[in-house]
Specification:
The complex is a heterodimer of chains A (111) and B (234).
Chain A: H1 12-23, E1 26-27, H2 28-38, H3 50-59, E2 63-70, E3 73-80, H4 82-106
Chain B: H1 7-16, H2 21-44, H3 49-60, H4 63-76, H5 79-82, H6 84-113, H7 125-156, H8 160-177, E1 178-183, E2 192-197, H9 203-229
Antiparallel strand pairs in B: 1-2
The chains are: A alpha+beta (111), B mainly alpha (234).
Chain lengths: 111, 234
Amino acid sequence: MRKSNPNFLNGVPEMLVLELLSRREMYGYELVKCIQEQTQEKLAFGEGCIYPLLHWLEESKFVSSRRQEVEGRSRNYYQVTPKGRRRLEELEGAWKDVVAGVSLVLEGHHA
Amino acid sequence: MRKLDSIEGLRRRLIVNGLPAAYVRGVTRELEEHREDVFAELRDEGVVGEEAEKRVAERMGRFDDLAVRLLKTMRRSNWWGRHPLLTFCILPLLSFITGFALVVVAMAGIADYAGWLEPGTMPGPRQWAWITGGVQLLHWSLFAGIPFWFCWLARSAYCGYRWGFVTCSVFSIHGLLHSLKVVAPKVGGDGSLAWGYSTRCDWLGMIVPLLIFGLFVVLSLYSNAIEIRQQPQA
C-alpha cells in the first residue's frame, strides 16, 4: 500500500532547515537570513519561531549544536547529523511526490 | 493571561509552565542573541532608537505565540510527551503493580533462604511484625515514590504540572479502592498477604498521592522562584 502523506505540508520548514544546515553549520539568526535570501523573501515568519523548530530537531537528533565564538561573539551553531541527512532524503522524496501530484491537478490532468 | 511583551516575560511563562530551568536559560539566551544581531543589522542600515525597537519586535514575532510553540514543540520531542495518556495514566499503575509484585517475590525468596517457609519453622510473632511493617513500608514507598517520579517525568518531558496532576489523580482513585492486608498466623495456622481492590474506601490511600503532587508543586515553585530571581546569563 502506498504510504500516505497527510501531514507532509507540516514538514516543509523542517525540510528547508535541514537542507540549509546540510550545506554548512549556522546559528539561528544566520539561518533565518539564509531562508529569507534563498526563498527571495517568499516565506515570512516571526524570526523567534526558528528556535522551537531547531530545538525539536535537536531533541529528535536530526541536528546537533555547539557553542562557538566567531569574531568575538559567542553563538549556538547547529549542524545536521547523519540521522538528519536520512530524514532530509525522506522529506525531499515526499516533497517531490506532492509537487508532482499537485502539478498534475493544476495542469488539469488525471492520474 | 497577561500578554508577553519581552523575553523576560517569556522566560517567566516557560518556567511557570514547568519547563526545566536549564532549557529556559538556553532558549532565552539564544533569543537575546538573536535580538542583538537584528539590532546590529538595523544599526548598519542606519535605523536606531524607537524605530529599531519597533522593527525588532515585528521581526521577532509575538512572544505569546513563541511560548505556545516552544511548549508544544518540546512536548512532542520525546516519547513520553507524544503519548501522555499511556505515560501518565497507565504506566504509573503498571509500575506500582509490577514493583510491588517483584518485591514480594524477592521477599518470598529471602524467606525461603532463611528457612521460614519450611513446615514447623514459620516466623514468630516478632518476625511477623517485621514482615508486616516491611510490606507496609514497601507499599507506601511505592505509593509515594511512583507518583513523585512521574511528576518529575512530566516536568522533564516538558509536559508540565497538568500531566503530573493526572498521574496523582489516577493514583488517588487507585489508592481509594486499593486494599492490602498482611495477617500474622495464629497458633498452628498460616499467615496471609491479600492484595487487591475493595469497596471499603481507604481515605489515606486517596490523599497521599494528592499530597505528593502538592509537595512536588511546592518544590517546583521554590525552584522556579530561585530561577526567576536569578539574573539571566549574558
